[in-house]
Amino acid sequence: MFVTRFAPSPTGFLHRGHAYSALCAQRAAREANGRFLLRIEDIDRTRCRPEFEAAIHEDLGWLGLAWERPVRRQSDHMDDYARALQELGERGLIYRCFMTRRQVAESIEQAPHGAMEAYRSQALPPEEEERRVAAGEPYAWRLSLARAEGLLGGFGGLAMREEGAGPGGETGLLPIRPELGGDVVLARKDVGVAYHLAVVVDDALQGITHVIRGQDLFEAAHVQRLLQALLGLQAPVYRHHRLLTDASGRRYAKRDKAETLRELRARGVTAAELRREMGFD
User: Fold this and answer.
1) 70 and 158 belong to one structural domain
2) What are phi and psi of 219, to 5 degrees?
3) Strand, helix or coil for residue 36
4) Domain presence at residue 212
Protein backbone atom coordinates (compact mmCIF):
# COMPACT_ATOMS: atom_id res chain seq x y z
CA MET A 1 0.00 0.00 0.00
CA PHE A 2 1.09 3.56 -0.76
CA VAL A 3 2.09 5.36 2.46
CA THR A 4 3.49 8.87 2.66
CA ARG A 5 3.93 11.54 5.30
CA PHE A 6 4.33 15.23 6.03
CA ALA A 7 6.99 15.69 8.70
CA PRO A 8 7.46 19.28 9.89
CA SER A 9 9.63 20.45 12.77
CA PRO A 10 7.87 22.63 15.37
CA THR A 11 10.53 25.35 15.30
CA GLY A 12 8.25 28.04 13.92
CA PHE A 13 4.90 28.59 12.24
CA LEU A 14 4.08 26.98 8.88
CA HIS A 15 4.19 29.05 5.68
CA ARG A 16 3.14 28.57 2.03
CA GLY A 17 6.03 26.24 1.32
CA HIS A 18 4.94 23.87 4.07
CA ALA A 19 1.35 24.01 2.87
CA TYR A 20 2.38 23.13 -0.67
CA SER A 21 4.44 20.13 0.47
CA ALA A 22 1.67 18.82 2.74
CA LEU A 23 -0.94 19.20 0.00
CA CYS A 24 1.32 17.41 -2.51
CA ALA A 25 1.71 14.47 -0.15
CA GLN A 26 -1.98 14.28 0.68
CA ARG A 27 -3.00 14.43 -2.98
CA ALA A 28 -0.55 11.66 -3.88
CA ALA A 29 -1.94 9.44 -1.11
CA ARG A 30 -5.51 10.12 -2.18
CA GLU A 31 -4.80 9.38 -5.85
CA ALA A 32 -3.12 6.10 -4.89
CA ASN A 33 -5.89 5.19 -2.42
CA GLY A 34 -3.16 5.12 0.20
CA ARG A 35 -2.36 6.54 3.62
CA PHE A 36 -1.26 10.02 4.64
CA LEU A 37 0.57 10.44 7.94
CA LEU A 38 1.66 13.43 9.98
CA ARG A 39 4.92 13.15 11.90
CA ILE A 40 6.30 15.75 14.29
CA GLU A 41 10.09 15.94 14.02
CA ASP A 42 10.88 17.54 17.37
CA ILE A 43 14.30 16.15 18.22
CA ASP A 44 15.85 19.64 18.38
CA ARG A 45 14.73 20.42 21.91
CA THR A 46 16.53 23.76 21.94
CA ARG A 47 14.32 25.18 19.15
CA CYS A 48 11.08 23.17 19.22
CA ARG A 49 8.15 24.70 21.10
CA PRO A 50 4.75 23.26 22.15
CA GLU A 51 2.97 26.29 20.69
CA PHE A 52 4.50 25.62 17.28
CA GLU A 53 3.42 21.98 17.43
CA ALA A 54 -0.13 22.97 18.31
CA ALA A 55 -0.11 25.47 15.44
CA ILE A 56 0.90 22.72 12.97
CA HIS A 57 -2.27 20.80 13.79
CA GLU A 58 -4.35 23.97 13.60
CA ASP A 59 -2.89 25.12 10.28
CA LEU A 60 -3.17 21.75 8.58
CA GLY A 61 -6.75 21.38 9.78
CA TRP A 62 -7.53 24.83 8.37
CA LEU A 63 -6.08 23.73 5.02
CA GLY A 64 -8.54 20.84 4.97
CA LEU A 65 -6.03 18.06 5.57
CA ALA A 66 -6.85 14.90 7.51
CA TRP A 67 -4.29 12.44 8.84
CA GLU A 68 -4.09 9.24 10.82
CA ARG A 69 -3.77 9.24 14.59
CA PRO A 70 -1.91 8.85 16.82
CA VAL A 71 0.75 11.15 15.43
CA ARG A 72 4.33 10.01 15.86
CA ARG A 73 6.46 12.51 17.77
CA GLN A 74 10.17 11.87 17.52
CA SER A 75 10.88 12.96 21.09
CA ASP A 76 8.75 10.03 22.28
CA HIS A 77 10.86 7.45 20.47
CA MET A 78 14.49 8.22 21.29
CA ASP A 79 15.15 4.57 22.16
CA ASP A 80 14.46 3.60 18.53
CA TYR A 81 17.19 5.94 17.32
CA ALA A 82 19.58 4.90 20.07
CA ARG A 83 19.30 1.27 18.97
CA ALA A 84 20.08 2.19 15.37
CA LEU A 85 23.07 4.28 16.47
CA GLN A 86 24.31 1.42 18.63
CA GLU A 87 24.10 -0.96 15.68
CA LEU A 88 26.16 1.37 13.53
CA GLY A 89 28.66 1.80 16.36
CA GLU A 90 29.06 -1.93 16.92
CA ARG A 91 29.92 -2.28 13.22
CA GLY A 92 32.52 0.49 13.37
CA LEU A 93 30.56 2.80 11.07
CA ILE A 94 30.58 5.89 13.26
CA TYR A 95 33.24 7.86 15.10
CA ARG A 96 33.44 10.63 17.66
CA CYS A 97 34.20 14.05 16.20
CA PHE A 98 35.29 16.75 18.66
CA MET A 99 35.41 19.59 16.15
CA THR A 100 32.93 22.44 16.49
CA ARG A 101 30.74 23.54 13.58
CA ARG A 102 33.02 26.53 13.11
CA GLN A 103 36.12 24.35 13.02
CA VAL A 104 34.48 22.05 10.48
CA ALA A 105 33.57 25.03 8.30
CA GLU A 106 37.13 26.34 8.49
CA SER A 107 38.49 22.90 7.63
CA ILE A 108 36.28 22.74 4.53
CA GLU A 109 37.34 26.23 3.43
CA GLN A 110 40.99 25.25 3.71
CA ALA A 111 40.53 22.12 1.61
CA PRO A 112 42.06 22.11 -1.90
CA HIS A 113 38.70 22.70 -3.56
CA GLY A 114 37.35 25.01 -0.88
CA ALA A 115 33.63 24.92 -0.23
CA MET A 116 33.15 22.22 -2.88
CA GLU A 117 34.54 19.69 -0.40
CA ALA A 118 32.32 17.98 2.19
CA TYR A 119 33.79 17.20 5.58
CA ARG A 120 35.38 13.77 5.97
CA SER A 121 37.66 12.58 8.73
CA GLN A 122 38.31 9.57 10.95
CA ALA A 123 38.39 8.53 14.59
CA LEU A 124 41.10 9.89 16.83
CA PRO A 125 43.73 7.55 18.27
CA PRO A 126 42.10 5.62 21.17
CA GLU A 127 44.26 7.24 23.85
CA GLU A 128 43.43 10.78 22.73
CA GLU A 129 39.74 9.95 22.35
CA GLU A 130 39.56 8.49 25.84
CA ARG A 131 41.30 11.53 27.29
CA ARG A 132 38.91 13.96 25.64
CA VAL A 133 35.82 11.95 26.59
CA ALA A 134 37.03 11.76 30.19
CA ALA A 135 37.56 15.53 30.17
CA GLY A 136 33.88 16.00 29.22
CA GLU A 137 34.55 17.59 25.85
CA PRO A 138 31.46 17.77 23.61
CA TYR A 139 31.45 15.64 20.50
CA ALA A 140 29.24 14.43 17.67
CA TRP A 141 28.87 10.95 16.26
CA ARG A 142 29.63 11.08 12.52
CA LEU A 143 29.00 8.45 9.88
CA SER A 144 32.27 7.23 8.39
CA LEU A 145 31.85 7.15 4.63
CA ALA A 146 35.20 5.41 4.33
CA ARG A 147 34.11 2.54 6.59
CA ALA A 148 30.69 2.36 4.92
CA GLU A 149 32.24 2.21 1.48
CA GLY A 150 34.61 -0.52 2.60
CA LEU A 151 31.80 -2.56 4.16
CA LEU A 152 29.62 -2.35 1.06
CA GLY A 153 32.44 -2.76 -1.41
CA GLY A 154 31.75 0.70 -2.81
CA PHE A 155 28.58 2.68 -3.40
CA GLY A 156 28.16 1.66 -7.04
CA GLY A 157 25.51 -0.93 -6.26
CA LEU A 158 23.20 1.51 -4.48
CA ALA A 159 20.61 3.67 -6.16
CA MET A 160 17.57 5.73 -5.25
CA ARG A 161 14.30 5.88 -7.17
CA GLU A 162 13.29 9.47 -7.95
CA GLU A 163 9.78 9.94 -9.33
CA GLY A 164 9.88 13.71 -9.04
CA ALA A 165 12.95 15.73 -9.91
CA GLY A 166 16.03 17.06 -8.18
CA PRO A 167 17.19 20.68 -8.51
CA GLY A 168 19.02 19.80 -11.72
CA GLY A 169 16.17 17.76 -13.18
CA GLU A 170 17.54 14.45 -11.85
CA THR A 171 14.91 11.72 -12.12
CA GLY A 172 14.56 7.97 -12.50
CA LEU A 173 16.90 5.42 -10.97
CA LEU A 174 19.86 7.44 -9.71
CA PRO A 175 23.19 6.26 -8.32
CA ILE A 176 23.65 7.60 -4.82
CA ARG A 177 26.34 10.15 -4.05
CA PRO A 178 26.72 10.25 -0.25
CA GLU A 179 30.02 12.08 -0.66
CA LEU A 180 27.93 15.20 -1.33
CA GLY A 181 27.15 15.35 2.38
CA GLY A 182 30.42 13.95 3.67
CA ASP A 183 30.63 12.33 7.10
CA VAL A 184 27.28 13.61 8.33
CA VAL A 185 26.42 14.01 12.00
CA LEU A 186 24.11 11.26 13.25
CA ALA A 187 23.98 12.21 16.93
CA ARG A 188 25.38 14.73 19.38
CA LYS A 189 26.34 14.22 22.98
CA ASP A 190 24.22 17.16 24.14
CA VAL A 191 21.25 17.01 21.73
CA GLY A 192 20.96 13.32 20.90
CA VAL A 193 20.04 11.89 17.53
CA ALA A 194 20.32 14.04 14.40
CA TYR A 195 17.95 14.41 11.46
CA HIS A 196 19.34 11.87 9.00
CA LEU A 197 19.26 8.90 11.34
CA ALA A 198 15.91 9.75 12.93
CA VAL A 199 14.10 10.20 9.62
CA VAL A 200 15.43 6.93 8.21
CA VAL A 201 14.36 4.99 11.31
CA ASP A 202 10.95 6.67 11.37
CA ASP A 203 10.23 6.04 7.71
CA ALA A 204 11.05 2.35 8.12
CA LEU A 205 9.01 1.89 11.31
CA GLN A 206 6.03 3.68 9.80
CA GLY A 207 6.16 1.75 6.54
CA ILE A 208 6.65 4.84 4.40
CA THR A 209 6.73 3.82 0.73
CA HIS A 210 6.98 7.31 -0.79
CA VAL A 211 8.86 10.34 0.57
CA ILE A 212 7.35 13.50 -0.93
CA ARG A 213 9.17 16.71 -0.06
CA GLY A 214 10.90 19.80 -1.47
CA GLN A 215 13.96 19.83 -3.69
CA ASP A 216 15.96 21.46 -0.89
CA LEU A 217 16.15 17.99 0.68
CA PHE A 218 17.19 16.17 -2.51
CA GLU A 219 20.83 15.94 -1.45
CA ALA A 220 19.80 14.47 1.91
CA ALA A 221 18.26 11.49 0.12
CA HIS A 222 21.70 10.25 -0.90
CA VAL A 223 23.02 9.74 2.63
CA GLN A 224 19.60 8.53 3.81
CA ARG A 225 19.62 5.86 1.12
CA LEU A 226 23.05 4.81 2.36
CA LEU A 227 21.81 4.57 5.95
CA GLN A 228 18.89 2.43 4.79
CA ALA A 229 21.36 0.03 3.20
CA LEU A 230 23.63 -0.07 6.25
CA LEU A 231 20.72 -0.73 8.61
CA GLY A 232 18.96 -3.21 6.31
CA LEU A 233 15.88 -1.01 5.93
CA GLN A 234 13.46 -0.88 3.01
CA ALA A 235 14.17 2.07 0.71
CA PRO A 236 11.19 4.31 -0.13
CA VAL A 237 10.58 5.96 -3.47
CA TYR A 238 11.40 9.68 -3.51
CA ARG A 239 9.35 12.46 -5.10
CA HIS A 240 11.04 15.82 -4.71
CA HIS A 241 8.92 18.75 -5.82
CA ARG A 242 9.64 22.34 -6.76
CA LEU A 243 10.03 25.00 -4.11
CA LEU A 244 7.59 27.88 -3.94
CA THR A 245 9.10 31.35 -4.14
CA ASP A 246 7.88 34.84 -3.34
CA ALA A 247 7.57 37.75 -5.75
CA SER A 248 11.32 38.40 -5.52
CA GLY A 249 12.16 34.80 -6.40
CA ARG A 250 13.29 33.88 -2.91
CA ARG A 251 11.97 30.59 -1.56
CA TYR A 252 9.74 30.67 1.50
CA ALA A 253 11.71 29.87 4.65
CA LYS A 254 11.27 30.29 8.39
CA ARG A 255 14.64 31.98 8.74
CA ASP A 256 13.58 34.66 6.24
CA LYS A 257 10.38 35.30 8.20
CA ALA A 258 8.14 34.19 5.34
CA GLU A 259 4.48 35.07 5.79
CA THR A 260 2.92 32.34 7.91
CA LEU A 261 -0.40 30.58 7.40
CA ARG A 262 -1.60 32.22 10.59
CA GLU A 263 -0.80 35.63 9.14
CA LEU A 264 -2.57 34.74 5.90
CA ARG A 265 -5.71 33.84 7.85
CA ALA A 266 -5.47 37.04 9.86
CA ARG A 267 -5.60 39.14 6.70
CA GLY A 268 -8.61 37.29 5.39
CA VAL A 269 -7.15 34.71 3.00
CA THR A 270 -9.27 31.56 2.97
CA ALA A 271 -7.97 28.01 2.74
CA ALA A 272 -9.80 27.57 -0.58
CA GLU A 273 -8.08 30.65 -2.01
CA LEU A 274 -4.66 29.46 -0.89
CA ARG A 275 -5.21 26.00 -2.32
CA ARG A 276 -6.25 27.44 -5.68
CA GLU A 277 -3.23 29.76 -5.66
CA MET A 278 -0.96 26.72 -5.35
CA GLY A 279 -2.81 24.66 -7.96
CA PHE A 280 -4.97 22.44 -5.76
CA ASP A 281 -8.75 21.95 -6.06
Assistant:
1) no
2) -65, -35
3) strand
4) no
Q: Which residues pair with 3 in a beta bridge?
A: 35
Q: Evaluate if residue 115 carries a pLDDT over 50.
A: no
- Alpha helix positions (H), the chain: 16-31, 50-63, 78-90, 101-109, 126-134, 145-152, 195-205, 218-231, 261-266, 271-277
Cβ neighbours for 181, distance < 8 A, ≥ 6 positions apart = 118, 219, 220, 222, 223
The answer as to whether 43 is a domain residue is yes
Residue 192 pLDDT > 90: no
Q: Coil, helix or strand for 193?
A: strand
Question: How far is Cα 117 from Cα 225, in angstroms, rounded to an integer?
Answer: 20
Measured distance CA(235)–CA(207) in Å, rounded: 10
51 and 129 in one domain?
no
- For 32, the domain range is 1-76+245-281
The model's confidence at residue 109, banded by pLDDT at 50, 70 and 90, is low
For residues 118 and 135, state if they share a domain. Answer: yes
Boundary of a domain, candidates 174, 200, 226: 200
Residue 121 amino acid letter: S
User: Which residues lie across from 251 on neighbouring strands?
Assistant: 245
Backbone angles phi, psi at 148, to 5 degrees: -65, -45
Q: Would you say residue 59 lies in a domain? A: yes
